[in-house]
Design goal:
The complex is a heterodimer.
Chain A (H helix, E strand, L loop, with lengths): L2 H21 L74 H7 L6 E8 L9 H12 L5 E3 L10 E7 L2 E3 L6 E4 L18 E5 L10 E7 L8 E6 L3 E6 L2 E6 L1 E9 L3 E8 L13 H10 L2 E7 L11 H21 L4 E5 L5 E4 L2 E4 L2 H15 L3 E3 L1 H5 L4 H7 L12 H19 L2
Parallel strand pairs in A: 1-12, 1-13, 13-14, 14-17
Antiparallel strand pairs in A: 2-11, 3-4, 3-7, 5-6, 6-11, 7-10, 8-11, 9-10, 15-16
Helix pairs in contact in A: 3-9, 5-6
Chain B lengths: L1 H7 L12 H20 L6 H23 L3 H23 L6 H34 L15 H17 L8 H9 L1 H4 L7 H8 L7 H35 L6 H32 L17 H7 L2 H15 L7 H18 L2 H21 L3 H24 L3 H21 L3 H22 L2 H25 L6 H29 L4 H21 L6 H7 L1 H15 L2 H12 L3 H20 L11
Helix pairs in contact in B: 2-3, 3-7, 4-5, 4-6, 4-7, 5-6, 10-11, 10-23, 10-24, 10-25, 11-20, 11-21, 13-16, 14-15, 14-16, 16-17, 17-20, 18-19, 19-21, 20-21
Classes of the chains: A alpha+beta, B mainly alpha.
Chain lengths: 432, 613
């Protein structure tokens, strides 16, 4: 063939593709832009398309440059993510942490407990670790806090090994676990999940009947200064301790182990994989009340919202989820009236839109709704999204190794940076 | 102005890639001028016409490289000039008997310059760390070193040219512009294939020729490559593989294992897709690039795999490394030198000086003693061959980057090749006994340590033992070898090789695209977490849920593997059938194919779905 014939071929193909592109500007021939609905079983709130909030028009923020907020830390470029805090006494949401700050003054005499609930973004003790270190360095205390009996997700802070009847086992081979945020088959009807939202049942099956379990929990961060073990379990479960090991036998529910000091701040990392944060109302109220009171829980951190983003393109659904989160906040406040609550919103999250990686349109929207909800409920709010730099910041985080290629999760160094920012923001609030 | 800036200026965030519309617009314009030269310049000008074409394409290639790598173009120009000059010097100095060592000097100088660039850009961090470790200093590289695109490929290309001139296999190219065109020809500049001078330079002096069938095949390669790159590679990566490798702990053992196998397909589709496009684009301009992938996952042994995978690199390593080391004939200074370098690099990267230097010393003693005491020439050949090919594999790993994981990756590949060769030399009694012992040992290790890695190995060994036992029994019963048993044997060998190669990729993928400063730590953690999940967090109950929720990803993976494993004849047939279609049918087919491919570009990203809690 002659080169000019090849050229004509190229021109014709490009011309036809141009026509196709004109006919289908979004390029989608085979699949339409579908509206997703929530499938998560944890949602029990009513979602209404008409339940709009006027002050927050849909998508209004997606293209707006991030503006400084009094209660957030802004860093437009990830290279200069310096937690420079702008304080405005009238709207600084840290005022809602005042009772927590006051309780820290007593940390020399007793335990002040902080529970950090969150989704997969806090797995492996991410972010909680930095918050713990910052608080314990300033107010004393040691130990990693609560740990599940079978650590199915490893932690950066504590390495766990399990032996059952003198045989090494994997966590999945251990006692049956029930999870408030898990699939239906792993849920309980009685709501008895304990404060971690998960419970392991020793000798659940009468056939087995003779499980003797040893959990060896070795601190990995060189902060081996805890003074005692605590086991939260039914009275029918027998336990003893030696060094890093906890020995358990008997039959009953084990809600968690805890490595902790007698005084100071204890920060518990409680990740709930895939969770929207709408599960607390399913957890037995009396159990929560008892634990929160006896363990002097003074701060509950809720870090949710990210799991609502990928599957939901409908603002009404997002509003419904935030409404559900408001119910959870109210429920937790009722269970722990002495505790302050801090809500950490979702980070920036990326998806492919027309082949380009961009921020999910619902991220800024949800962030705004959550902030509004938090201020109305008198709880503190930290906007991870705005702190990162707003729309598209996750892409810049990816470039410098702070975020994974999924555009959703932080890398370890990213989580460290975010955790330090939250901790510094909290501590600075305590000084005012 | 912005538009002109977009068209002509280098933008690090938007390099020129085959998958972008910009590239195809660029190619259309380039081809328009190319057609003008080829059709309007009279043939009577002969070589001058070809020279004009070559110079034109060379400048186009330089622009392409500038758009891809910015001022790193200067490195490309420098090595082009230096190797061209040095090759001339080699020939001139060879004519004088008094200067008999000069050609070698010039060759060494050329290799030193070329590898110097490669070493700086790829290994500067490593060398700095090693120097600091050895001498207790604390030097650091202040600025981040950005690897120039394609440097590994064109550096190997110019080395092959100078080495071939030194060996007298080719005559040096007289015109530097022709040589510049050979080094920088844009379709293969960025990701290969590594074209040897003797394969390409003769084409510079041949007139344009593109048969009707070759045209059809060129178009087929381009569409095939785009499909591989966007459907089989990018779609799988974005929707599953990347997220699993980023956070293995978020996923169950099965999901990790699936992602690992899918990565095998992804990396093949990505690399070979790019090469397919390069071959097709070059063909449309009348140039023929060598095949770079020959259905590698059809291989029945690791050795065969490396003959089918990235063939141009394999040939390069064989010609310019394995054979000079001695091949299966001997071991010499080169073998000792590289064994020492590998030992030092490994010790420096890991910090296990004693743990590596003791085996190193044992190996050196073995290298000295074995040739003296081993009289069987076949066994001696096997010894030389194994040693030199192991070194070649490890250096091939290091070529990808100075990371511990790349060394492990190269080492496992070398080890696999050796084990397979030894296995082939065993009779069935020994095979069965060896497999039984290995499986039993791994089961005991799993039982007493409960470490996922041993469980993983034990399961794998158990499967191999089971099949070996069946084959052993069949052998004892003196069962006849039929076509059916042969086919079963072939399928098993392919499956085993594919599985082995897939697990080596655990270390390859974990090291890719990482800041060298954190590469080792992150890569090791990723590999460890994936192994722990596969060996320890298996959950059969969630497999059906996963298969259903990720049905598109699973379907693409299965489709990719089925197409890959189609018989070569079938593939050749449908390629020829496509190329023989009328032009209008090819136009329609191309438009449909691109429209379908574009659906995968614009498709929604698969939301995160957790099965493992």
């Amino acid at each position: 063939m002659k080169p000019y014939q090849v050229l004509i071929f190229i021109a014709v193909v490009m011309g036809l593709l141009g026509v196709l592109y004109k006919a289908f500007p979004n390029g989608q021939l085979l699949h339409k832009d579908s509206e997703f609905s929530i499938q998560d079983s944890e949602i029990s709130v009513e979602v209404s398309e008409n339940d709009t909030i006027e002050e927050f028009p849909v998508f209004a923020e997606a293209e707006v440059e991030v503006e400084a907020e009094p209660d957030t830390v802004i860093a437009k470029e990830p290279e200069v993510i310096i937690p420079k805090i702008v304080v405005d006494s009238t709207t600084d949401s840290r005022v809602f942490l005042s009772s927590f700050y006051a309780s820290l003054a007593e940390s020399g005499n007793k335990v002040v407990r902080v529970l950090h609930y969150g989704d997969s973004q806090i797995e492996e003790d991410r972010m909680s670790q930095q918050i713990r270190e910052a608080l314990q360095n300033k107010y004393g205390g040691s130990g990693a806090g609560l740990l599940p009996l079978a650590q199915t997700i490893p932690s950066r802070t504590v390495k766990q090994q399990l032996r059952m009847n003198d045989r090494w086992i994997q966590p999945a081979q251990g006692p049956k676990r029930y999870l408030v945020y898990g699939p239906k088959r792993d849920q309980r009807d009685d709501g008895m999940y304990g404060v971690m939202g998960q419970v392991a049942v020793m000798n659940d099956s009468l056939v087995q009947g003779s499980e003797e379990l040893t959990a060896i929990c070795t601190p990995l961060d060189g902060r081996k200064r805890y003074t005692k073990w605590r086991v939260f379990a039914d009275s029918s479960v027998h336990y003893s301790f030696a060094g890093d090991s906890v020995f358990l036998s008997g039959q009953g529910k084990v809600y968690g182990l805890s490595q902790q000091s007698d005084t100071g701040v204890i920060v518990d990392n409680i990740p709930m994989r895939g969770c929207l944060g709408l599960v607390f109302t399913k957890m037995d109220r009396e159990q929560l009340v008892t634990f929160y009171r006896e363990q002097n829980v003074q701060l509950i951190i809720m870090q949710f919202g990210g799991n609502a983003i990928p599957s939901n393109k409908n603002p009404g659904t997002i509003q419904g989820i935030v409404k559900g989160l408001r119910q959870q906040v109210q429920y937790l406040r009722a269970c722990a009236p002495q505790a302050s609550i801090l809500f950490i919103g979702p980070s920036d999250m990326l998806t492919q839109i027309d082949g380009e990686w961009q921020t999910y349109p619902m991220v800024p929207y949800m962030d705004k709704l959550l902030r509004k909800m938090a201020l109305e409920e008198n709880i503190a709010y930290f906007s991870l999204y705005r702190w990162m730099g707003g729309a598209g910041s996750m892409a810049r985080w990816q470039e410098i190794g702070l975020a994974g290629s999924d555009g959703v999760h932080f890398t370890r160094s990213g989580a460290r940076k975010a955790g330090n920012a939250v901790a510094e923001w909290m501590l600075e609030g305590s000084e005012n | 102005m912005d538009f002109l800036h977009y068209i002509f200026a280098f933008d690090a965030e938007h390099p020129l890639l085959f998958t972008q519309f910009y590239f195809w617009g660029f190619f259309a314009l380039v081809y328009a001028l190319f057609a003008l030269i080829m059709d309007r310049v009279p043939d009577s000008l002969g070589n001058k016409k070809l020279h004009l074409r070559n110079v034109y394409l060379m400048f186009v290639s330089w622009f392409f490289y500038y758009k891809t790598s910015g001022l790193f173009l200067l490195i490309l120009l420098f090595v082009t000039l230096s190797d061209w000059l040095i090759a001339q010097r080699i020939v001139k100095s060879r004519k004088s008997k008094a200067e008999s060592r000069k050609p070698l000097f010039w060759l060494c100088l050329s290799v030193a310059i070329d590898l110097g660039f490669l070493a700086y850009f790829k290994y500067a961090y490593f060398f700095t760390d090693a120097f600091n470790d050895l001498f207790g200093t604390s030097y650091s590289i202040v600025d981040k070193i950005i690897l120039p695109v394609g440097i590994s490929f064109y550096i190997f290309q110019v080395i092959s040219y100078t080495a071939d001139v030194y060996r007298g296999r080719i005559q040096p190219v007289k015109n530097i512009l022709d040589f510049g065109f050979y080094v920088s020809f844009f379709p293969q500049l960025v990701a290969g294939p590594i074209v040897r001078a003797e394969e390409f330079i003769p084409q510079l002096y041949k007139p344009f020729h593109l048969s009707r069938r070759a045209f059809g095949i060129a178009v087929f390669w381009i569409i095939n490559g785009l499909g591989k790159k966007i459907i089989m590679s990018d779609f799988l990566a974005v929707n599953l593989i990347d997220r699993v490798f980023d956070n293995p702990l978020l996923f169950s053992g099965f999901e990790n294992l699936f992602a690992l196998f899918a990565y095998s397909l992804q990396v093949y589709a990505d690399f070979s897709g790019y090469t397919d496009i390069a071959i097709g684009v070059a063909m449309l301009m009348g140039f023929y690039l060598p095949m770079n992938f020959n259905s590698p996952y059809k291989s029945q042994s690791p050795q065969e795999f490396w003959r089918r995978w990235h063939m141009s690199l394999g040939r390069w390593l064989k010609t310019y490394l394995y054979i000079p080391l001695g091949g299966n004939r001997s071991i010499g200074f080169g073998t000792y030198f590289w064994v020492t370098v590998i030992a030092l690099v490994s010790a420096s990267l890991t910090g296990w000086w004693l743990g590596i230097m003791i085996p190193y010393a044992v190996l050196i003693v073995g290298m000295i003693l074995v040739p003296r005491f081993l009289k069987d020439s076949n066994r001696l050949k096997l010894f030389y061959s194994n040693l030199n090919s192991f070194i070649t594999q490890v250096l091939g790993g290091l070529w990808h980057g100075a990371s511990w994981n790349f060394i492990i990756w190269g080492g496992i590949n070398g080890f696999g090749m050796i084990v397979e060769k030894i296995w082939r030399g065993m009779n069935w009694h020994i095979r069965f006994a060896a497999m039984t012992l290995l499986t039993a040992g791994l089961c005991v290790a799993d039982f007493y340590t409960n470490l996922p890695v041993w469980r993983l190995f034990a399961v794998w060994a158990g499967l191999v033992w089971f099949v070996t036992a069946i084959r052993y029994i069949y052998f004892l019963c003196e069962g006849a070898e039929t076509k059916f048993t042969q086919a079963l044997g072939t399928a098993w060998a392919i499956l085993q090789t594919f599985t082995f190669i897939t697990f080596t990729r655990l270390f390859f993928r974990s090291s890719s695209n990482l800041d060298p400063a954190t590469a080792n730590e992150v890569a090791w953690a990723t590999a460890k977490n994936m192994v722990n999940q596969i060996g320890g967090a298996w959950n059969n109950a969630i497999i059906p849920d996963f298969l259903w929720e990720y049905r598109w990803v699973v379907a693409m993976f299965i489709a990719g593997m089925v197409i890959h494993w189609l018989p070569t004849n079938w593939k050749r047939r449908y390629r020829l059938w496509f190329s023989a279609m009328p032009i209008w049918a090819i136009v329609i087919a191309v438009c449909i194919a691109i429209a379908v491919i574009y659906q995968f570009v614009t498709a929604d990203v698969q939301p995160f779905i957790y099965f493992q809690f």
